[in-house]
Amino acid sequence: MSLQALDLHIHLAGAGGPGPRRDEKAASDEPPAEASVLSKPSQAQAAQADVQEAAAGCWFHPRRLRAPGFRVMLWSLGISRREARTRLGAALRARLVQALEGAPSLSAGVVLALDWARDEAGEPRPDLTDFYVPNDYVLALAGAHEKVRAGVSVHPLRADAAEELHRCARAGAVLVKWLPTAQNFAPDDPRAAPFLAELARLGMPLLCHTGSEGATRNLNKAWNDPRRLRAALDAGVTVIAAHAGMRSFFHEPDHMDAWVGLCADYPHLYGDTASLFGLRARHLIRALDRPYVVDRLVHGSDWPVPASPWWFLGRVPVRRIRALARVESPLERDLRTKRALGLPEAVFTRGHALLYSAQRPSRASS
Ligand SMILES: [Zn+2]
């Protein structure tokens, strides 16, 4: 199988109110957002029905609609606040499908679920959760669209964690996503050990957030430190540190050097290039000067976080930036901007290699 460019860090969300709200119902009179050339014709109708049903399980805390960062994101996507309030899930999904269709450089994108913030007993805490994206939603999307792969999310402290992991693996999930500071657990909590052992056994990579987090509340910023991933790495799990420990804002600690240090110890540790926003965009330039680090980078956009080539003024010629800014698909624009920065092609194809076992690097022996 030839290696193809893959974006392994894409988010979706669906609306929710004070009590899970079914924003898909409000949108059901309209043509399905995902009726597109990406659909597999033979199963299209059943697959679209599955997507609609699974999307109805999403939850979105109304407080996020008021957050400045979220408003910027809506503006960049051309989604009005009214549309966000009434049909956020369908609107975001339509933009995503459009962005994937308009990205000829990408073979596929991994769309990420997000499990609930949970309490010590592993029970959901909607009051602590900013957004919840069910695994069944991304699995249904992957069944409906040629260019979508499912990245599922399983909180390691839930009672059925191993069972859910195996269910998702059987359904075709390609990786597990954690966002510990939003999901209320330490990545190195000893109680997560059985789950990590199962992940290692399945050979399924873990994409775990590191560095500053701005899209959700931080329940504990200490959990954004990549050194917390030693537990997963020691268990033999292939780990992709989302954002490679980079920060977005000056007042946040920068964990990139910690991630670089870990790379020396663990050959099965990677970091993704998400996202080209704020300081993080400039930090990516730092990585380019270290070939050893570039060998561990994996392409990810963090869509729908807005990506702009203008962050690289002074590094990329203005004429080229202008041309990049005109690329309509934000996913294609993000990828081409990173190519313009000089990231080697291996960064874009490495995700494909990690997710498909024949290409998967051997685990470090402990
Ligand atoms: Zn992200």
Notes on the structure:
This protein is α/β, with parallel strands linked by helices and 366 residues long. It has helices spanning 23-26, 44-55, 62-66, 68-77, 81-101, 135-144, 161-170, 180-183, 193-202, 230-234, 256-265, 279-288, 291-294, 318-325, 330-341, 345-355, and strands spanning 6-11, 59-60, 108-112, 131-132, 148-152, 175-178, 206-209, 239-242, 269-272, 297-298. The chain has one domain (6-29, 39-359): Metal-dependent hydrolases (TIM Barrel). An 8-stranded parallel sheet has the order 1-3-5-6-7-8-9-10. The protein has a two-stranded antiparallel ribbon with strand order 2-4. It is 40% helix and 10% strand. Helix 2 runs antiparallel to helix 6 (135-144). The protein has 16 helices and 10 strands. The protein is globular and about 55 Å long. Residues 9, 11, 242, 274, 302 line the site of zinc ion.
End-to-end span in angstroms?
30 Å
Q: Which percent band covers the strand fraction? A: 5-15%
Radius of gyration: 19 Å
Share of residues in helices: 25-40%
Low-confidence stretches: 17-22, 26-35, 358-366
Largest sheet: 8 strands, parallel
- DSSP helix count? 16
One letter per element, helices H and strands E, the order comes to EHHEHHHEEHEHEHHEHEHEHHEHHH
According to DSSP, the number of beta strands is 10
What compounds are bound to the protein? zinc ion
CATH homologous superfamily caption: Metal-dependent hydrolases
> Given the helix and strand composition, which structural class is it?
alpha/beta
Q: Indicate the overall shape.
A: globular
The CATH topology turns out to be TIM Barrel
Average pLDDT over all residues: 86
The CATH class assignment is Alpha Beta
Number of domains: 1
Strand order of the largest sheet: 1-3-5-6-7-8-9-10
